[in-house]
Design brief:
Belongs to the carbohydrate kinase PfkB family. The protein is built from 13 helices and 13 strands. It has 334 residues and is of the alpha/beta class.
Length: 334
């Protein structure tokens, strides 16, 4: 469950970033000062449109890694009744994801400007319709809740904490009470900073926590962990209070080209990523989403965690060679 967005991707220049005070590598929510950005990026640069939204990307990648059967992943989110919404529906169907959108006509379908410079990407999300998801209008409906009951693994990116905390808590509690896996992503430094109360309401239900090194540092700072060491942060996040004691929390933190860190109980392991020549990197947008998608594909097939990390590294390595969160027809992951 998450924010379905249409990604508007373009290679931009430093002047463009500076004009809208964007950091080269960041994720933010659009403010009034970014209104023109969405028009300017389309006018000034060569743009590509891709179906996006962090959670939806991850579900697609998991489905792609698994291949058969189709529709192993179900996705909930809110869109508008418009052209962008139709594109998202088509793209989800093409990816064999079982998308059940809450459609409303007060707000247009959300979009995300992916401003690419070199191997960095600055994401500016205009949530619009995505922000209109309502528990009682969609999640609580019997036919939709049945799909949640059917799921073995639930994944929601931290981005959704700004939209519908009550929906997340309902799913998280259901997973915890039924000993299912509930997975969450820190998603962005601003989630750890400005939505930390919401984040910490969900944290006791989290079985698998994902994040990257910048998110981990922001999280550690807000939680007074008094360390910027990724391994130490993973260890401390793993030890935070947890409701379902039948499962140990697993914390998985990526560090770009550096080793991925995984904390289980009091043990921290590191896993080297697949090497890639920098000139083969086309676009790092979607790398984190792909990592999660690969990991989830292993989880639902009940593979050992080390295998899940391997699948995650493979998926991320494929995605960064391509524009947007797109993939070839079939994976060649062994």
């Amino acid at each position: 469950m998450g924010n379905p967005l249409l990604d508007i991707c373009a290679v931009v220049d430093k002047d463009f970033l500076d004009k809208y005070s964007l950091k080269p590598n960041d994720q933010i929510l659009a403010e009034d000062k970014h209104k023109e950005l969405f028009e300017e990026i389309v006018k000034k640069f060569k743009v590509e449109y891709h179906a996006g939204g962090a959670t939806q990307n991850s579900v697609k990648i998991a489905q792609w890694m698994i291949q058969e059967p189709h529709k192993v992943g179900t996705f909930f989110g809110c869109i508008g009744k418009d052209k962008f919404g139709e594109i998202l529906k088509t793209k989800a169907a093409e990816a064999h994801v079982d998308a059940h959108y809450y459609e409303q006509d007060e707000e247009p379908t959300g979009s995300c400007a992916a401003c690419i410079t070199g191997d960095n990407r600055s994401l500016v999300a205009n949530l619009a319709a995505a922000n209109c998801y309502k528990k009682e209008k969609h999640l609580d409906l019997e036919e939709n809740w049945k799909l949640v009951e059917k799921a073995k693994v639930c994944y929601i990116a931290g981005f959704f904490l700004t939209v519908s905390l009550e929906s997340m808590l309902k799913v998280a509690k259901h997973a915890s009470e039924n000993n299912k896996l509930f997975c969450l992503n820190l998603s962005a430094p601003f989630i750890c900073q400005f939505f930390k109360d919401n984040l910490m309401q969900v944290m006791p239900y989290v079985d698998v926590l994902f994040g990257n090194e910048t998110e981990a540092v922001a999280f550690a700072k807000e939680q007074d962990f008094e360390t910027e060491d990724t391994q130490e942060i993973a260890r401390k996040a793993q030890a935070l209070p947890k409701v379902n004691s039948k499962r140990q929390r697993v914390v998985v933190l990526t560090q770009g080209k550096d080793d991925t860190v995984m904390a289980i109980s009091d043990k921290v392991e590191t896993f080297p990523v697949l090497t890639i020549d920098p000139k083969d990197i086309v676009d790092t947008n979607g790398a984190g989403d792909a990592f999660v998608g690969g990991f989830l594909s292993g989880l639902v097939q009940e593979k050992p965690l080390s295998e899940c990390v391997k699948a995650a590294h493979y998926a991320a390595n494929v995605i960064i060679r391509r524009a947007g969160c797109t993939f070839p027809e079939k994976p060649d992951f062994k």
